[in-house]
Amino acid sequence: MDPFSQATLGAVAAQSTSDPRRLRAAAFLGCVAGLAPDIDVFISSSIDPLLFLEFHRQFTHSLVFIPVGALICSAVFYVAVRRYLSFKETFLFCLLGYATHGLLDACTTYGTQLFWPFSDDRIAWNNVSVIDPLLTIPAFILMVVAVIKARANYARIAFAWIVFYLVIGLVQKERAELAALELVRARGHHPVSLEAKPGFANLLLWKIVYEQDGMYYVDAVRAGLTTRIYPGDRTEKLDIPKHLPWLDPSSQQARDIERFRWFSRDYLAVDSRDPNLIVDMRYSMIPNEIDALWGIRLNPSASAAAHVHYQTNRNPSPERLQKLKRMLYGESLID
């Protein structure tokens, strides 16, 4: 989830247990502790471009690390609040703020290792976008009002709003999946897997990805008062012997593909425009397209020890943004 949302949820979680005199300090500690787990973004390597994928949302985001992370935050920030709080109170507010981070991240589609070190499964409940203003802005306003008016009830309302919005996300996800299943049946398909993922910054437009006979199908569902399907693209699932016959199975690039496969939960395909670019099918700006937001580029002439190149694609054209807008409004894409 974006830092603004993480800070806001951490702050309102801490404020919700505070008395009026400590709301400002609670908001501060909940905010910084709610942001703290993302310090793992600094774990990276100029040599190994996939290292950050393995460590982001790993141990700092796990459930068992919450009290450790809260204790570290308490030790660091106690000096800023010791005039107003005891260390015990400082730890409580940091604990509440820190605890929200991994759980909120798990609500997105990226994947969070909540059960590290016992499991490296990336938990993704797919019920909110990584950025959603409708989730965050009302809660932020209520958090500020709680400080100004010195009333914790505003923070509790903010916390309740976030929980309510996440529940709405689960409802919308189910509606999108039911609409997708009708489409799948109409095509006579029996998919190996099917997932619905929220579109960027909204719970109205959903990306549908499913696997059928070695192909990935990508469609969009607008789950408004009624549902509308936007049929999309399809592409072959990554088959290394077929798509990358030149690849040495013992090479570093082959190992990097498996690392990227774990990260993307095996939603891998070869980009239609570049036979050496492997993309993560889960993400695209336009939900019924396969124009992935990120992928790894291989080099057939690279040495056996060379890593892949990680690249992103986050510059949509005005025409594609207009297409996204029309889908959000439930309009036809055919002029």
Automatic annotation (TrEMBL):
- Which Pfam family is one of those matched by this entry? YdjM
The UniProt transmembrane annotation reads: 59-79, 91-111, 123-147, 154-171
Q: Which UniProt keywords apply?
A: Membrane, Transmembrane, Transmembrane helix
Q: What is this protein called?
A: Metal-dependent hydrolase
Q: Which InterPro entries match?
A: Transcription_regulator, YdjM-like
List the residue ranges forming a coiled coil, or say none: none
